[in-house]
Write the structure tokens for this entry.
Amino acid sequence: MNSSAQAGVGSGALSHVYIHHPSLRCNIPESNGLFYDDANRLLICTTSSQVFSWETSPFNPDVPPSVDSISEGPILSIRFSLDKKAIAVQRSDCEIQLFNRETKQILNHKCKAGSESILGFFWSDSPLCDLAIVKTSGMDLFACDSMLNSLRLVETKKANVNWYIYTHETRLVLLASGLQCKTFNGFQLSTAGVVRLPRFEMTMARSESNSKPILSAGDLHLVTVYGRIYCLQVDREAMLLHLYRFYRDAVVQQGSLPIYSSKLSVNVVDNLLLVHQIDAKVVIIYDLFVDSRAPVSAPLPLLWRGYQVSETSSQAVNKEIESSESSTSNENIVMYEDGWTFLVPDLILDQTNKVLWKIHLDLEAISASSSDRTSLLEFLQRRKLEANKAKQLCLGIARAIILERRPATQVTQAIDVLVTAYSYSVKAGTYKEIKNENATASTPTPGASPDSERHRQSGSNIDEEVEMNLSSGSQENMFCADEQQESQLSSPAISPDELYKFVFTSVEEMMVEESEYLVAIITEFLRSISAEKLKVDLNIYVMTIKLLAYSKRFAELSLFTTNKIIEPSKEVAFQLLDSGRQNIRVRKLGLDMLRQLSLHHDYISSLVQDGYYLEALRYAQKHKVTSVRSSMFLEAAFASNDMQHLAAILRVLSELIPGFKETSEYYTFYGLLNDTSSSVAV
Amino acid sequence: MASMSSGDESLRLCMFDLRRGQTEGQELEKILFFYPADLDFSTQLSVIGLSEGLITFTRLFSPEAACEVIEAERHSHVFYEAEPDIWMVMVVEKNKETGAIWRIDALRRVLKEVHSLFVMFHGSIRALIEKEPTGGLTRSLLYPFITDYLSTFQIWSLSEDCCCEFFVGKKLQLPTFRETLRERGTVQMLTLARDTAVEVQSLVQVLDSCAGSLRCHSMILFQDLLVSTTLSADDTVDLFTFAVMRLTSKALSSDTSSWSYLRKGPGSSEISSRSNLAPVGSIDSLHSRNGNNMHHVIRPLQNDKWTKGKDGFLITDIWGLETGGSPDSAIPTIWLQQTQERMYLLAYQHKSLTLLLLMPTNAIVNGDLSISAVKQQVIEDASLRILKIEENISRGWGGENAYHIKGYRYLVVDNDTKVSRSSPSGKVTTLAKESLLALNKLREEVDSEKSRAKGQEKDMEICIRAKNNVWVIARVTRGKELYMALEKGSDTLLDTTDAVGRFSNRYCSGAFLMD
């Protein structure tokens, strides 16, 4: 990715990542705590006796909070149960209270004071337990009865725990131990059961003073991208962000990213890793899909935008309302201020202003700043959050590279990317369709694409990230995200038909003079879809014929047709006949095609048109075609002034068409025949 | 066999210009070429004089198309007006015992072929004469060219017709009735599966753009079959003919095995000396008049001159050595009929796949293009694809007898595209001599019908049962021709037309409708 592209622009208004108005604002007076429940995606605001909660997914700032009353007391943390029937509140380091929202019953859970203390808790949807409480002595797993009357301890995982991290997205809990807190016990509490990870250590560079740095919970980030689970670890001494990927039975370090700020946080948007370099106030985007650990784009500030920009170019429109720093608005936003908490995947909680922001990617800006079109297309084809925008950008790029007359090899690569991505999404789509029948409600196909009918048949609309469940037996990705149900996505994949419709037809007019170049591109396109065994709108063949005929490349036109690169069809045949007005060979190709397609009527009519009326009649006789007007043959023969032929035709028609001798046509031409030459006998 | 020693009277081949030597004493001027070259001038002039007389006489009745053939008692005279007022005449001896039974049109096509090839390499004869009115340049090019061409007949016959092997080295074999199921002046195509065809076309696009913005032409052959071309039908035929003669993998490998015989015959070593014995005036004076370029006569059809280089490109020293002068001067050049453009010819070979690349010469003169850069580009952009395509085609290729259709001995010609397909020669030889003779006779009839139609498309359907119970069939329709021999004695006419109909539907997409 090219970073110099923006250097020239240089304006502070340029960004690849932005947050925009309106935010979700919790203007509850006397609130004393702001929490985020990642399992239920709830923003929770507490007062001394009330709990306000907002749904953050889908992100809607206007949604009113729901209100629950709880007894007064300190709140260290608060989480709704997964069925939202109960609220669990950690009151102290030895007490957790559970409130049943319906029955208003309260259940208290206390641990042995003194010997151990509670570090935190979370709800689980594993079959084994419903609630996990992490203590300094290990993790207790509890099952609740349906009425939440009691907690039953089902299992204890003994370990010395300094601190822990958990995200519901990954269902992964990492328990830190050791002097440097860099030794980890990990468990995944997924719907398939509880899996214990092998114990592992994280890398920590020694500081210059040779003191051993201690890892804190804030230095670790669990993220999910492309259905893979990663743990990111900040190593401040080395100024590196280490990546660990979790497999079923192994934790493997997979490279490191450089960091430019001692304060660091991460978000994940649309499977892209956003690394906030807080001191530098910039975001760097990484796409972990590719092996390269190079950033997708140059570091740019996070921007605040007044309103959503959609189809228009971001740089042009938003300059006046964008602000990288703050205070232009009533919201008084200070970027990367201390009160910000970054919530994985894509939320920022501003504790000071009590607002929640959702992070957005500006795909247009990213593509505008990239010069390598092939990798850009690959990048865009992996986007799902704004699939439609990604798709439109891809189409735009495809059009642009053709109009810019990029070398055919470059265009070929681009086409290959798009076709392969489509083919892949078709294949993946069918897989998921099967799965949806017995699993979750299938995702509705939003914003039906112009070609939705075809898409639905092939099932390509469904996002390509096929979830790999633990139960699905995939050896590699045992861990995976649970995002799928709510991903209201269509794929940015572009079908060959759409490529034809939105790329080739739109460039055709502008490139008539360069039909040779366009033919080269279309050939590559046909090769690409043929390699993927896909079909395309047959109008592309009509276009190919026009272009080849225009540049008088009849030899190739002939090869394209006889080798069936141009698939035979009635439309194609008619185009050949039409283009064949300049070249009899091409016209014959059209005639041959009509015959091969057994389009008897058209074949016979075209033959007569070309003056081969005897051949036409012979063919009609052989194939018993009576739909062609008999007068056509007669008129053709009469026009050629060959009375013998006329006589022969009259005789054949009398045999071919019952009752022909009674028609007025017969009399007319029989009369003409007798007038002209009495010597010819019928 | 239809062979003859070059020394006897069985073959005369001459080319002359009616616009030259019209005053007495200057008759020799009109002779451009005569075979055998060592025949005395009076005999040469008598052959040409007779031909000229016949042409002048027949033109009285048919100014557009004069004499085509004269059948004498012992000889056939075949006429071909190669260019306006430039005539080629072939006189062949009739001899039933040696099997010297010809179809006149097949012989005329030999004349046509050698002329087309000559024009492809040297440009039109008229243009040469106009450039150098003494005719010395033209003669010095024609003599080795046609002699080289005639010598190639021996090699061809060796590979195609094993019966003639005994005579190789001593004799020339002109196409006899045994070759009635083939059509000179057409190309034979390889049938491709769609996905391979798409790959090929994609390769063609790559090749065509190897010289940057300058569009090249290309032709691809697999063994002796055409895979793709971007040239017009006529140019395709000429270049294809040459490639099959000299460039394809088969041509390269068969040269070495059979050439040793031919050296004993009217081989290359003698030709140059003999061409110097050319009848007109003193060659030496011509040389001095025309300067240095006369010393090096390019002989494009010279055999055994092409080898495959390390980089896959075919190398030849026919056009000179690469070391001398400008590096591009040694690159072969040809003329395209359709565009009248002079093109550099590059040949690249990978196993059975031969790729010919044509680039306009003026682009190089202008400095827009360098051959070595193009070569580099081909290797970089195309060599992987070439590898893959060669593999694909080889895998799907049915071998020598791929286009054999059981029970049929056939020839299909498409005159529009100049493409033909026929039973493999090995299968044709299983036909009885009578069958071949009958078919040859039938073709002769069709030829004369066609020539009477004067370029208009004829529609014909002929089925004949010959003496040995063979059915010989000719079907001509809208520019396509089908010839067939069916040696199943008991078949009725109805069965026969059915059989032809089935063949047509199955293999010719129903092009030949049978009543």
In short: The first strand of chain A starts at residue 17 and ends at 20. The longest helix of chain A spans residues 408-438.
